[in-house]
Amino acid sequence: MLELSERKQHILAVIVERYIATGEPVGSKVICTQMGNAVSSATIRNDMADLVELGLLAQPHTSAGRIPSQAGYRYYVDNLMADYELDADEQERIKIWLGSFSSEPDKLLEKAGSILAELTNCVAVSSSPADSDAIIRRIELVPLSNHTAMIVLLASSGILKSAVVRSDAEINMDIAEVFYNICQTYFVSRSVSDISIPFIQTLVASLGDKVFVMSPFLCAIADLCEAVKTTDLHLKGQNNILNHSELSEEAFGLMDFIHRGTPLENMLDSHKAPLNVAIGSENVYRELKNSTTIFSKYSVGNKDSGSIGIIGPTRLDYAHLIPTIKYLAGVIGNMLTETLDE
Amino acid sequence: MLELSERKQHILAVIVERYIATGEPVGSKVICTQMGNAVSSATIRNDMADLVELGLLAQPHTSAGRIPSQAGYRYYVDNLMADYELDADEQERIKIWLGSFSSEPDKLLEKAGSILAELTNCVAVSSSPADSDAIIRRIELVPLSNHTAMIVLLASSGILKSAVVRSDAEINMDIAEVFYNICQTYFVSRSVSDISIPFIQTLVASLGDKVFVMSPFLCAIADLCEAVKTTDLHLKGQNNILNHSELSEEAFGLMDFIHRGTPLENMLDSHKAPLNVAIGSENVYRELKNSTTIFSKYSVGNKDSGSIGIIGPTRLDYAHLIPTIKYLAGVIGNMLTETLDE
DNA sequence: GTTAGCACTCACCCACACAGAGTGCTAACA
DNA sequence: TGTTAGCACTCTGTGTGGGTGAGTGCTAAC
Fold first, then answer.
1. How distant is C1' of D24 from CA of B61, in Å?
2. What is the share, in percent, of chain B residues with pLDDT greater than 90?
3. Which helix (H) or strand (E) element contains residue B304?
4. Is residue B255 within 8 Å of B240, Cβ to Cβ?
5. What is the Cα–Cα distance from B268 to B276, expressed in whole angstroms?
6. What is the pLDDT of residues A307-331, one digit of tens each?
7. Which of A108, A205, A251, B233 is deepest in the core (most CB within 10 A)?
8. How far B163 CA lies from chain A's nearest CA (Å)?
9. Rounded distance between C-alpha atoms, residue B285 and residue B278, angstroms
10. Model-level pTM greater than 0.70?
């Protein structure tokens, strides 16, 4: 790690924080005042020149002040940033906002995304748990009309998926009973990755005369298992991209990137640590080379499941946003774990 | 309605279609060629001057060609536009895309929005049916674990709402039975607007010792009824706003507008006709004064329910988009009606 | 009513000058 | 050796003026 004199660290911190606040390059004179005129602006200029040399600061042009380079932000996040905890008020507010309506996992994640977008003024992304090894906990048939029913599947990943199925035959108690038995025998307690199309086909073949009645339901179950294995991304606050003038050049590319879906999923999947902060070109995808991504995983029942986080400019209030995202991920994890309580 | 000579109509049509295709102002010479040199460019210039006089064309500046004014688009849509039907291929493609996974109403609408965004390169908006007079068709309790259950509510508007509820007491057959009886007696066949907070309070008071077990469920039902009364908006293809250079000036305002939600809901609610095309300042909200909105209502069980449509620039391929949106609305209506079949 | 011919009008592009902010460097100082 | 005052320098942003070209509007003839 880079060794910096106390004063240079202080100067770097002032520049980062001031630039984060104003978006304007910071000149030596301003820093001088900010530091209570402890040293002259010329001294600060000398230090700033050194910091540029070290790659921690950048100069948009000769006659402008300095702005943090991506490495400068990184140094700030790793070494200078004040530890900040959400105060009880903020914590309470988030909890109430999130829990005002006890909802399904997918809706909870969507709502968490909305909250995050609101709090951060960035694009918020939340991913629902995708777990190929998830076990089917329960499957229920909910009759809706004579010919339609809803199938609900609860997986050990805490995720709940449902589909509406239409059957040509009337859905009565008999059918429900048969469905229940099939589920208990062939589906419940198995891994979702066992439920392949061939599996369904063999199963269907063994059903005899019930095959026509049952097959739409069984196909729906296969679809639901597929859905359990698939990551769902929820995007919120896309309007915030245009809020950040430094992103206006690449707003189009960014928008396109987040709408493409798959690369974003891959990125979230590749995260190993519970918290990931990627500044500028630390991001794998070059579409994000001028953006910062902050993502936190949440865990359902002690197992890392999905992520929630933001995509924004590199000029971000890291000191406040990182703890906020961490906290939100914690709350979501707890709420989703509850559904699995036996 | 404005009386125009055959030739002027033709010139207007050429200008509108060419401008839609290229985005460049159209000059007299180009039109001349397009019309097979039937008349000279000077003649066309004279006609164009008349069309400007009538307010159907506009001139970005003296030495540029002409572009359609908003009134010009309107005249085109009302009188000149070719009637276009989706061919069987396109129809089939939409149906397959939409119906690949028999889904819940909300998800169906979301998917329809995605399809529309894809097909039109515009922001697609779909609203789920909100009906204050909807009748509760069914309420079902789906146990998920010892202490959590899902409540599913089907309303006559074709909409299905669900919530996950956590109860301190264990959820067993007894509780399911009590719940079922309460639902049959107090909820099913009533209008969702009857299920007010006071109603729930009186009901709770009459439950005696079951009050603690039941109240979270009953509160959830009240929330669900509220949800049935509320319009849900699904936005898709927001990246498309940046695709249209003519909207880049107001991209920020537009983005903000569609994210505010309520005005958009009000707009959809105010539509009386099955198909609404508002060009530029025909839109009530001034944020849309340079945009076009095309919305079609879909009906569930012969009753107008929600809308689906797009927001884009005034420069749109009206001749193709309008039939596409109409068709999609028709398909959605049919699919949602099916769920209600008794 | 239609056409050819021509002057005219802007938007666009480029080059240039000017002001202002903030620096880099030098020489003096503690 | 580290710090400071002073000053020339550099580069952006803005505004001004001339040149080019596309497309028009107008006039006079057909």
1. 10
2. 61
3. strand B303-313
4. no
5. 9
6. 999 999 999 999 999 999 999 999 9
7. A108
8. 5
9. 11
10. yes
